[in-house]
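Sample A.
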Amino acid sequence: MHTDISWAKVLGPEKQQAYFQKTLAYINAERARGKIIYPPKNNTFNALRYTPLSEVKVVLLGQDPYHDPDQAHGLCFSVPKGVMPPPSLKNMFKELANTVPGFRYPSHGNLCSWASQGVLLLNTVLSVERYQPHSHAHIGWELFTDRVIEAVDKYTKSVVFLLWGKPAGLKAQRIDGSKHLILKAPHPSPRSAHRGFFGCNHFNRANDYLITKGKAPIDWRLPD
């Protein structure tokens, strides 16, 4: 384990790359034209801010941020307190309630307590235009989040990767399965959750693996 590593050290050079600068320039130009982009600018990299690289134990990979007002705050699947949990998050709570002893439906959908325990809540695309899902796919974010995944793969060990849905599943090729645990399932969206997300038992399986590796399990309960 490289305890002296940090996102800044590993991704600093990446942020100087032309593609990354171009991605940020595109988003800034869209905002200048009056487009509403989520999450707010200062929340774009919250996943990295809330979970230091040296503390990552689980990587939960989403697709792109929520595109309705007030929902996205830079952590995949999470919404700020006071915002109704969207359908995918409700299905995650349903799976948790059905499989994790002691889990109770929370009063909110803010997953910061997971992030503070080492769950990297990363979307494959880090921005979106209001009401336009996937509008920022293929502007460069996927390459950047590939580098994030590769950094976790390289600089940590015994991390659980929860890959739900096809875009997340494609990231498996960036991960050494002999060094980490890769768990795949359909996306928790209402369109696909019934195809195998419900009953996948990923939350317990993740903790069982962490315990066998001498790591503290994640407390999936969400305090009020």
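Sample B.
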Amino acid sequence: MIPELAIGAVVGLIISTTGVGGGVIVLPILTYFFGLDALTAVATANLLSMLMKISSSYMHFRMGNIPLRQSFVILLIMIPGTVLASYGVTLLSHLS
């Protein structure tokens, strides 16, 4: 339990201070240290990334760093692609 907590603290610190994508750091850790298969590691990394970004987004929102109009336009463009990619990955995982 202690090694997992230490790894989580270090990863959270690195991601929050450098802005490096969580997948670059989290995926290898989940795969090699925790033995997760690739699909489970990606899903877990996505969940962790979402949870970490909620607090960061809230702080940036409070500081006035987010241009809301442009952000919503980008979000509307990204949602269909994200949904399609999620279904595609799920379909591909069932083929093997």
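B remarks: The radius of gyration is 16 Å. The chain is about 85% helix and 0% strand.
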